[in-house]
Design goal:
It comes from Actinomadura spongiicola. Helices cover about 0% and strands about 20% of the residues.
Length: about 55
């Protein structure tokens, strides 16, 4: 899996001083002393529906 972008700010206090943790996608905010994990939930490739034309 490729590296994702880092978060811009802490979701709890809004500060921008974030440190990555050892776990993938985990971050620590030293300002409010909280840890959080980001999970990417993306949109997959569009599905192509095979519709039959009614006769």
């Amino acid at each position: 899996m490729s590296e994702r972008m880092a978060p811009f700010y802490c979701p709890y206090c809004g500060e921008e001083n974030l440190e990555p943790r050892a776990e993938h996608g985990s971050w620590f905010c030293p300002d409010c002393l909280r840890s959080f994990t980001l999970k990417f939930i993306g949109v997959g490739a569009p599905r192509t529906a095979s519709k039959e034309i009614p006769r």
